[in-house]
Design a protein that fits this description.
Blueprint (H helix, E strand, L loop, with lengths): L1 E2 L6 H10 L1 H13 L10 E2 L4 H8 L2
Helix pairs in contact: 1-2
Length: 59
């Protein structure tokens, strides 16, 4: 679980390495379109590694 970090920050890159760069860009587009809050007191997100998400989708 993490909050929404600045898009060009090293924290965003760390989260992208875990969840996938394209996945995180899609999440940020969704967050911006729905007026989520960013930074330390903003909205959070629960992330899964891509391999796990693919395995869960096959169930």
């Amino acid at each position: 679980m993490t909050n929404f970090h600045l898009p060009k920050s090293t924290l965003f890159m760390l989260v992208s390495a875990f969840a996938g760069f394209d996945t995180m860009h899609a999440a940020y587009r969704h967050a911006i379109a729905n007026e989520y809050r960013f930074y330390s007191y903003g909205d959070g997100s629960l992330l899964f590694r891509q391999e796990q998400a693919d395995a869960d989708a096959d169930l």
